Amino acid sequence: MNPIIIVAAVVFLFFLFSTIKIVQEKSAKIVQRLGSFNRILHPGINFCIPLLETISGTVNLKVQQLDIHIETKTKDDVFVKLQVSVHVQIMKSKVREAFYELDDPYSQISSYIFDTVRAEVPKLELDDVFSRKDDIATAVKAELAEHMQKYGYSIVQTLITDIDPDAMVKESMNRINAAKRNKEAIYEDAEGRKIAKIKDAEADKESKRLQGEGIAEQRLAIIKGFADSVEDFSNTLSEVSPIEIMQFVLLTQHYDTIRDIGEKNSAIIVPYSPGTLQNLQQQLMEGNLMADEINRLNKDRTKIPTDRTKSFAQTEKDILDINKHLE
Questions:
Q1: What is the rounded CA–CA span in Å between residue 158 and residue 7?
Q2: Is the pTM of this model over 0.85?
């Protein structure tokens, strides 16, 4: 075979394959013709003129993350380190500007981020930096979008991912938080004890109420039994006066009580003389006589309401005479 034909075929194949340019998804290639921008190659198969057109560079159209660490000072003079994450994407419509306008785009983006963060954070105190980190991120995004859009860069998202105060400040904050938590724990514990005491008091109140009702019912039963006993005595022994019957029943209950107390091992009975019972009977009789005499005097005053001759002093004198008589 003719060597010239072989050389020509090799050269032809070289030029043929050099004209074919394959561009990957989410990327673009810049084509220059004789040193000047010619066009942009998009994903897929493309063709270039050998020797006249060259690929000067490839542009990544994916969303890229830029992490920046910034140290600045807050309004209350606390040094703090912030980590800012910026998601950047080159706009398809401005691939040429993104490739040609900026020499080191990510360094220049970082400069804008530094400037914005150091302008916003000194306006806030440390606690506000934590609570308003989204506002800081929004301010950074707005500042970057305003300056970088004309260069073909779109700011997708801006995040404040970390806020790290000075070590001594963090230690102080931890002590403050621990004190607050301890205070809350003490308060909750006190509230729990308070509720428990209230519930105990309510239970004691209910118990005493029920106990009082039981005692009241018991006393009503005793009074009823006492009344029945007096009535039975009166019906059986008509010659015995009601006062004597009442004295007898009271003495009977007195001895029943002494018997019940004596059945308990822990009870201590103090001896007393029989005269004590006589004194008790005498006091009951005197009390009954006093009551009868006062009732009689009241009835006399009711019968003669207009009689003013007997003064209150005379009535009192009569009562004193009755007392002397009883003595």
A1: 58
A2: no
